[in-house]
Amino acid sequence: MIDTVTYSKIVYEMIKKNFRNILRSKSSALIILLGPFLIILLIGLAFNTTGLHNIKVSIYAEETNDVFEEIVTSLKDNEFTVIDSTTEEECIDFVKNGEAHICISFSGDLTSDEIERKLTFHVDYSKVNLVFSILNVITHEVDSIAEDLSVEYTKLLIEQMDATAQEISEKSSTITSLANNAEQMQQNLELLSAELKSMQVDSDSFGLSDVESQIADSSSQIDEFGAIAEETTESGLALLDELESYITSFETELQTQIDTIEDFDDTVSSYATLACSFDFSSVDGLDFDPCDELGEIEDSLDEAISQAESAGDDFDEIVSQLDDVRDDLDTALESQQEILDAASENIESLSAQLGESATKIDELGNQRDSIVADLDEMISALDENLATIDDIQTGIEEISDNLANAEITDPEQIVNPILTQIKPILESKSYLDYTMPALLVLVVMFMSILLSSTIVMTEKNTRAYFRNYITPVPDVTFLLSIYLTNIIIVFIQGIILLFIAQLAFGVSIFANLISILIALILISSIFILLGMSIGYLFVSEETGTLASISMASIFLLFSSFLIPIESLSEAIGAIAKYNPFVISESVLRQLLIFGNSIFAAMNDVMLLLFYLIILSVILYMCEMVDKRRLR
């Protein structure tokens, strides 16, 4: 059984041997000493900044205006190089060819209300970290300009709202007048509807049926009168014919009598001539003179003939008058017939017109009913309109009151109802301060894995490797010596990194140095054990080195150093949270950035301790496997 002092000396000698092997080459010693200095110097020079530099932005705009020029000026003020493009395709090609980091396309006129106003960013997501950093800066500037435009537009909107409120207040009386007019119209329509309903508009109410009956009676009477007049005229004509025939026969008889009287007068005349030729004075007993008597008779006969002829003339005149009467009766009959025919036609026309009038009156009655129904509908519609007008008036009054009593009239408060203020939980620092935990873990991880695996592979390739196993020393001693060798080297390099970061670049290290050193030893131990396990697991130095680099690369890829693990798939992201690189970065972030003690990250520290135990077991098993190979 080896005592503690002897065991410590053995371990010390093994560590010295390992250092001799490592420092046997001056270049190796120089790398161990100057490597951390060069690393932190390059990292500090690269990351010790707070802004973006040499960012090139290609821009294409369909139309230029004040807003476009303001955005371009803002980009130039942020030290962005602006490249003008003639087409959108050329702007995108600049990004594809690496001549620009982002393409901004302005569609339409940003100040016009009639077209779509759109600002399009064409980005290359293969440069994910840079893209979001650029977008953050550009969108901040664009949002600032957009906010100014929003405030200006809001001012115009508020002015229009004030004008609208004033106009509503002025027009409120108009709506009241409209409501009053609508009520008056409703009352008038109700009166009109009542009057129309009281009107009897049909043929019976106008007595047209009685008039038609009277017209029909008149037509019958006219027909009867025409028949009577025609019969009377024919009777009169017949009577005239009989009278004329009687007069004609009487005239003929009278002419015969006249002829007889004339013959008798001629005889008397001859007798008178003869009597006058005699002298009857000598005749006794003759007391008259035949010549005189016969002369008197002749005169009487002449007078009778004259009277008879005069009577014949009178009869001729009577016949002529009868002819005139007959003609007048014929004419009167024809005129009467024409008048009666005209009267009949007029009565028939009047009857037809009365029928049409009755139809039209009935139609008018139907129209009256329709108008009354329409009026009722109009009255109902007016009722609804009045209710709507009341609602509108109430709504307008509410709108007017709301506009007048608007609590928020400040355009800036309307544009930004919730003022967002982003306050960093730490004072403004450079990128080096924020990335120092990840960079320190990255350097420690690669140095620990590669150095420990290299030392193990170098030890395995020495002639004394087999002799080490046959010496009466526990196997864990060799593991402990290699581990301590690596931890000393990594610890020294880490101290160099931290001191240079503090002194040269102002990274806060000394304020929490003890916790940082404890965390650094714990993190280094995990990756050293992992590298030693790889060294014992693989046979050749080349495969061991390749495996070490691959394992470190896997840890790096599945961390937040390149892309946030939240952007990974859900399953991979859940596994990546337990990545030693991620946990180590979280611990150092607590210590370096926030200045907390190691106890603030106790959950992650406990997980790292769990990894340390598991890797110790895995290392011992790998060493046993390698030992069996030697047998």
Q: Would you write up a description of this structure?
A:
The protein is mostly helical and 631 residues long. The protein has 3 domains: 4-48 and 431-630, no CATH class; 55-164, 3-Layer(aba) Sandwich (abc type-2 transporter like fold), CATH 3.40.1710; 208-404, Helix Hairpins (Orthogonal Bundle), CATH 1.10.287. It contains 16 helices and 4 strands. The protein has helices at 4-23, 26-47, 66-77, 88-96, 128-198, 208-276, 290-404, 411-415, 431-460, 464-470, 475-505, 513-537, 541-557, 570-576, 580-593, 602-630; strands at 55-61, 80-84, 102-107, 118-123. A 4-stranded mixed sheet has the order 2-1-3-4, sandwiched between helices. Helix 3 (66-77) links the parallel strand 1 (55-61) and strand 2. Helix 5 packs antiparallel against helix 7 (290-404) and helix 9 packs across helix 15 (580-593). The radius of gyration is 73 Å and the shape is rod-shaped. The mean pLDDT is 74.
What number is the mean pLDDT? 74
The SSE string, one letter per element, is: HHEHEHEEHHHHHHHHHHHH
Q: How far apart are the first and last residues' alpha carbons, in Å?
A: 25 Å
* Total helical segments: 16
Radius of gyration: 73 Å
Class based on secondary structure composition and strand pairing: mainly alpha
Shape: rod-shaped
Strand order of the largest sheet: 2-1-3-4
Count of distinct structural domains:
3
Low-pLDDT stretches are none
The gist of it:
This protein is mainly alpha-helical. It has 16 helices and four strands.
Fold topology:
Blueprint: H1 4-23, H2 26-47, E1 55-61, H3 66-77, E2 80-84, H4 88-96, E3 102-107, E4 118-123, H5 128-198, H6 208-276, H7 290-404, H8 411-415, H9 431-460, H10 464-470, H11 475-505, H12 513-537, H13 541-557, H14 570-576, H15 580-593, H16 602-630
Parallel strand pairs: 1-2, 1-3
Antiparallel strand pairs: 3-4
